[in-house]
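ugh ok so i messed up the first submission bc i forgot one of the chains. this is the corrected input, ALL of the components this time, i swear. 467 residues overall. if the numbers dont match what u have on ur side tell me asap before i send this to the collaborators (the ones from the other lab, u know who)
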Amino acid sequence: MKEALQALLDRSLPLPGVGAFSARLTDRTYVTHCYGDWFAPGQVEQTLSRLALAADSLGYHGIQPARLCWVFERARIHLALRQDGACLALFVENRPGTNAKVESLLEEFTSLPAS
Amino acid sequence: MPGEIIKRKAFLFVDDDAVFLTSVQELFSEMARGRWDVFTAENHAQALALLGQLRVDVVVLDIGMPEMDGIEFLKLLGRTHPGQQMVMLTGEVSEERRKTCLENGAALFLEKPVAPDGFVAIFTALDALARAKPQTGFRGMVRRVGLQEVLQLECLGRKSSVLEIFTGKVRGRVFICDGAIVHAECGALQGEVALYGLLALRGGEFNLLPFTEPPRRTVEGHWESLLMEAARLHDDGQKFLESEEAGPGAAEPGEAAAPKTTGLPAGEVRIVEIVLCSGSGEVLYDWKSKSLELRLRLLEQIEQQATQLNSLAPLGRFDRLEILTSEGRIVCQVQPDRRLFVRRTGTAAGVA
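and heres the new structure output, hopefully the right one now
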């Protein structure tokens, strides 16, 4: 899956407005990249880890998320979750015109073939 | 003035202290010099019987009474005799009681006199109240009327007023200025969200008061658009209720049967649950929530998680979490003054 993911990321990114991404694979390794100095890789990975925990905790409330979007004043963080446990977070600036391509990337991520 | 017709004012004093009532009747009748009719009652039952026979200008209530205290009686009179002028006269003064009484329709909250001078002051206040020129217009009770209809009437008539709304849990106000809705507040909520929350209430009471300038103007837009939006939100809920009554998988005429798992035609989006609460967690509106406590805990948890995320990255103020599931979409909005949980089923195009 790592190769397929890398290929997907290579052909889809960078995207206007996307400041960073981080993917956590099934073997718990991370693929992370930051565009510009808005975020640092360590910061992004730590955030992804928190996001994944937060997504897990929704199960207690009877919610099984496939995708989440945390909307903040300056940015939104998209998180796509796969059945095999892998997840991808995209850190996106709040500006118009970024949504469609981000959506498409997240959808492609969730439908990547499992390794 | 020779030939002047003096219209006598009728006062009803309700107090369980018979001695006090006798003093009041003697003193005030003397002070009024024929301008007052003073009636007395020792409990709410006697008072209601008298009010059934007489038209009284002002009812003066003591608070500490057995069986039904003055505050409860005040609330009861507000329902049974809307528009009746009511005054509290008590020896048990506290700021909290004053607020409660004034909020429940008392025109004045007065302390029982302990000296003769005090009786003069009370007499003067009551006399002035009874002589005050009544507001023009009809006074009465309107039953089974929707808040939308009241707002519509006020706006169409280009009136300026404050619509005060009460239920057991909720208290809110809608400010109308020259036929435009300019402000709404409901607990800690303000603006359109407060307006929609109030218009979604299933029942309660309202008062139309003279307009006063709100602390700030938070609602913009034409009143028709605002009421239409409120009606649309209401209809969404109603459609869902109808579909639920028809049973899972039921389809509307002319539509293909929907999968039994959701009861929805493919592609149709329906709101199935709403919880709205104040920033402090007080529930303002709950629609079809199966576990209110769980939802409140979820919103609290999301707020904590957002704070943690913000400490890791410079993201700014948190607004909401949008969740896409196989069944539909959930929005959890956490603002300083409100928390909102909305769950909808059906095909959704994605999040954010």
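quick check: The interface with chain A takes residues 294-295, 297-298, 301-302, 305-306, 308-310, 312-326, 330, 349-352 of chain B (CB under 8 Å). that seems consistent at least. Residues 142-246 of chain B form one domain.
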